[in-house]
């Protein structure tokens, strides 16, 4: 009667565990969908990073052209300064000549009143001097006009230089912002990749534990069949250990919920990139008469074979290791399946999620007075220690040589 009561308790408990594991299966499916979406967004972030690099190169080229234009304008400014100084010297010389000619003209007019004999000669000389004076005045006016034009050109060149300097500062600020955004996107990408690699390592470890648990379940089932109707009370302790490890397994599966943080980080990085890009575009439109190049106008750089391979690894090794791992048992865990692969009819019952159902092998075990049901096969989600402890409980009291030959320890302390 105690064995039957224990059997019922274990059946109820394992049914509850099966329902909880079924819920975990659904959660894992949702997480896989989020992981696929995350891979797509990672590719989008990489494309955006390539666009930012191309835009950065374009800005640097424009900055170099601006610097060359500034240097050319500076040289023209210096040449205009020199021409202005030369014109000023010529103007001063002409003014002095004008004063001298005027003085000579006045002197000759005074002499004309005293020397009427030289009147005709002086009149001719005066006529020539007046003609020269008129030509000098015209030349002086032309030089003044040329000076005004030179000063106006100099003022225009100074304004152009100021505008180019302001554009240079704007280009420098835009380049710094682009470099900061590129660095931020690269850091977020590295953080996301490290989290994904840690998740993949954890899945590989879970697969190894699944294999060990499967072997232990096979040994447990074989030991139960070979024991016949004799069973030791030590199995109660082993079943308790098995139950405890089931609870630990559930706690580990709940830890996978932290993968949502990775998804949030990726979405936040994309939103930050979009906001910064829009801000830079608006700034360029306000400050420059020409529209800035958009990420769609910039040609994307085709990745090399080495870059393509690294991207494949960073996106979760979608084409390499995961199918191979899933073929050996991780696929069951990734799909959230609470059951696993065991021998006989037990694997069929667990794969269907029926932890308490009876199969042909399970019915034989109950008929022989064993308190273990098919639900024990759910140890595929546990590690090898708890399952082997249950196996040792089946053979612990008798110390049978068959159990030792089958690799089942005689007591839990052997683990």
Automatic annotation (TrEMBL):
Keywords from the named record: Coiled coil
Keyword hit for Repeat: no
Keyword Cytoplasm on entry: no
Listed Low complexity bias regions: 357-367
Chain spans, region Disordered: 278-415
UniProt feature, compositional bias: Polar residues: 304-314
Stretches assigned to coiled coil: 7-223
The name this protein goes by in its record: Pleckstrin homology domain-containing family D member 1
Source species of the chain: Geodia barretti
């Amino acid at each position: 009667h105690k064995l039957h009561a224990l059997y019922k308790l274990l059946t109820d408990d394992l049914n509850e565990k099966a329902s909880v594991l079924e819920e975990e299966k659904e959660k894992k499916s949702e997480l896989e969908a989020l992981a696929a979406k995350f891979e797509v967004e990672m590719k989008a972030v990489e494309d955006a990073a390539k666009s930012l690099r191309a835009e950065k190169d374009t800005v640097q080229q424009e900055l170099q052209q601006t610097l060359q234009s500034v240097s050319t304008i500076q040289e023209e400014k210096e040449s205009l300064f020199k021409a202005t100084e030369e014109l000023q010297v010529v103007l001063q010389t002409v003014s002095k000549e004008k004063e001298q000619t005027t003085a000579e003209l006045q002197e000759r007019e005074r002499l004309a009143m005293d020397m009427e004999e030289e009147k005709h000669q002086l009149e001719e000389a005066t006529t020539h001097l007046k003609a020269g004076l008129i030509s000098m005045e015209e030349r002086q006016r032309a030089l003044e006009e040329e000076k005004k034009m030179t000063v106006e050109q100099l003022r225009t060149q100074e304004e152009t230089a100021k505008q180019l300097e302001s554009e240079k500062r704007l280009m420098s600020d835009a380049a710094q912002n682009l470099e900061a955004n590129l660095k931020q996107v690269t850091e977020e990408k590295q953080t996301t990749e490290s989290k994904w690699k840690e998740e993949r390592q954890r899945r590989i470890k879970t697969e190894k534990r699944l294999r060990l648990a499967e072997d232990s379940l096979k040994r447990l089932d074989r030991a139960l069949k070979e024991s016949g109707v004799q069973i030791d009370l030590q199995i109660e302790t082993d079943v308790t250990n098995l139950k405890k490890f089931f609870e630990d397994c559930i706690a580990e599966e709940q830890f996978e919920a932290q993968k949502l943080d990775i998804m949030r980080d990726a979405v936040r990085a994309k939103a930050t990139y979009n906001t910064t890009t829009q801000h830079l575009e608006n700034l360029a439109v306000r400050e420059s008469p020409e529209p800035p190049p958009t990420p769609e106008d910039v040609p994307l750089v085709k990745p090399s074979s080495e870059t393509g391979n690294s991207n494949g690894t960073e996106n979760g090794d979608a084409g390499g290791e995961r199918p191979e791992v899933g073929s050996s048992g991780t696929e069951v865990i990734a799909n959230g399946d609470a059951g696993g692969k065991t021998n006989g009819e037990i694997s069929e019952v667990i794969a269907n999620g029926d932890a308490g159902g009876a199969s042909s092998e399970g019915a034989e075990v109950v008929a022989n007075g064993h308190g273990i049901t098919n639900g024990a096969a759910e140890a595929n989600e546990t590690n090898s220690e708890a399952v082997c402890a249950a196996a040792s409980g089946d053979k612990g009291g008798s110390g049978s040589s068959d159990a030792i030959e089958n690799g089942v320890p005689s007591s839990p302390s052997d683990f």
